[in-house]
Each structure stands twice: as C-alpha cells, then as structure tokens.
C-alpha cells in the first residue's frame, strides 16, 4: 500500500507503508501456526474480527453466486439469530446453504455434522479447540471459530476455515481480499505472543459428564446437552437474584431468554487429553442450592 494512504502523523507512528507490510507478515505467520496447532492442513484459513462479521461476508459472497445463507432449524447464538432468516423464500436463489451451530451455547446440544457436511456453514464457537475438535475438522466443510473462547488465543480474531475442494477459487480469493481489510495489528501480535509463550496449551480439555440429582426442595436437576463438553447446562426456570450473582463468580451464566444455567470449565491442555471436571461442577451446584 502507498505510504500516502496514512496521514503524516500516522506515518511517523507506524512507519508509513511498512505498517501494512508488517500486518500482512504477522497474519501469514499466525495462519501457519494456527494451521499446524489445530491440524487445519485440509483447509484454507482466513481471519476476520468476529463470527458475525465472517458470516456476513460469507452471506455476501454466496449471494453473488445466487446462493442464500439461512439458519438451520435449531437454536443459535442470539446475535446471529437476529442477522439471518431461519428460512429463505422460494425464488431464483438456492436456499440449500444453512448455518449450523455445532454446539448450542445455551443448552449444550450437539448438532451432529454428517460427512460430507456440504451445504452447511458451521458456527464452531463452542466446539473448536475442545474435546469436539476432531468431529469438527473431520466433518466440516466450512466453519467459523472465535479465537478468544476455548482456544484462548486473542480477542478480536475469528478463524474461517474452508475446504478448497468444496468452494470455488473465486470465493476464497474474495475472502482473502476481505481478510486484508478487517484485521489490525494488535490482535495478531497478541495471538502470536500467546502461541509463542513457553508451555502454552492450545485446547480447553475440560470435560463434564451428565449430571442428574435431586435438590433439597425436591426438584430434580438434570443436565441437558452433550456430555464431554467443557460446560454443562440445566433447565432452571426460576433462578434467584442471589444465585445469579453467585454464578457469575463461578465462570457461569444464566440465560433468562432460554431459562438455562451454564456452568463452564476451563482446563488448558493438549489435543486428545480430556480432564474430567464433573466434581467441581457438583461443588458449584452445592453452593448455588446450599446443599450440605
């Protein structure tokens, strides 16, 4: 890029046109490291700011090929649910490409990816870099995953992985063009610092078993969703103010719109080495419901 693209003040701060060259170099180094660490050799890897931005880009690029992107018929992350229709009206466009949320963030439900997973775009926010990672990279055709969640690499970066044999060179070239315009230097630097830290562990290997117990008030508390995730969810229609306050201190969340409680676990490790954290979830449940 021509140095004159920056104002004189910013040229002094960032070194003129060298800023863009440096960002491109950082991105290429990070792309190579992410591909190796997360075993993405079968994919072309792109980076943007967020899952929502990435999906908006894909929607635009598919629309240019007369293909509409819509939501599969299950629950999705609320911001994404607001961005896309659940169904596309019949017309000139092919509505066969759907967004599938691999692991539901509110219930832990696993929406299985049947091989080959063509015709779907996967939101892998809660499966990438977890014990579900193998299922994702073996079955996925194109998926998006934020690098601030279970990968814990950096804030402000989302990975888009595309199998080159299943999507056109044009779509991938345009994704590369979008990528160059959407990622700044800071998150790339943060990501590389994290990855290059001695002893860094790339996966959240926490695993929680199915839970089924009776509470002191006679209510039954059963986990919903898929066992083996780094969190478990419960249907809890009534949750007091005190409990909501306490759960925030436990790395948990209460989702009022779905009436569900999520208790999350974070355990850094290497691929294929899950750590059972069910016992600590029982401890949190005991605190929330004063079980002695």
From TrEMBL:
What InterPro entries does this protein map onto?
DUF6024
Listed name of the protein: Uncharacterized protein
- Organism (species): Rouxiella badensis
């Amino acid at each position: 890029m021509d140095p004159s693209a920056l104002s004189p003040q910013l040229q002094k701060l960032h070194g003129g046109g060298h800023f863009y060259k440096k960002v491109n170099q950082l991105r290429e180094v990070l792309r190579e490291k992410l591909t190796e660490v997360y075993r993405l050799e079968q994919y072309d890897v792109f980076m943007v700011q967020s899952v929502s931005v990435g999906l908006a880009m894909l929607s635009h690029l598919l629309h240019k090929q007369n293909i509409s992107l819509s939501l599969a018929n299950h629950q999705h992350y609320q911001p994404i649910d607001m961005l896309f229709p659940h169904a596309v009206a019949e017309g000139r466009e092919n509505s066969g490409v759907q967004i599938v949320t691999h692991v539901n963030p509110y219930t832990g439900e696993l929406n299985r990816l049947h091989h080959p997973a063509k015709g779907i775009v996967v939101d892998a926010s809660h499966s990438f870099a977890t014990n579900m990672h193998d299922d994702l990279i073996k079955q996925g055709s194109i998926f998006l995953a934020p690098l601030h969640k279970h990968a814990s690499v950096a804030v402000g970066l989302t990975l888009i992985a595309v199998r080159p044999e299943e999507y056109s060179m044009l779509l991938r070239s345009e994704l590369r063009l979008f990528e160059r315009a959407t990622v700044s230097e800071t998150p790339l630097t943060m990501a590389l610092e994290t990855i290059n830290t001695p002893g860094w562990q790339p996966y959240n290997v926490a695993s929680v078993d199915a839970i089924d117990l009776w509470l002191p008030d006679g209510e039954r508390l059963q986990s919903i969703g898929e066992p083996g995730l780094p969190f478990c969810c419960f249907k809890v229609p009534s949750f007091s103010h005190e409990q909501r306050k306490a759960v925030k201190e436990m790395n948990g969340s209460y989702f009022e719109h779905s009436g569900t409680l999520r208790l999350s676990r974070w355990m850094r490790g290497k691929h294929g080495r899950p750590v059972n954290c069910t016992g600590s979830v029982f401890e949190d449940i005991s605190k929330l419901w004063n079980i002695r």
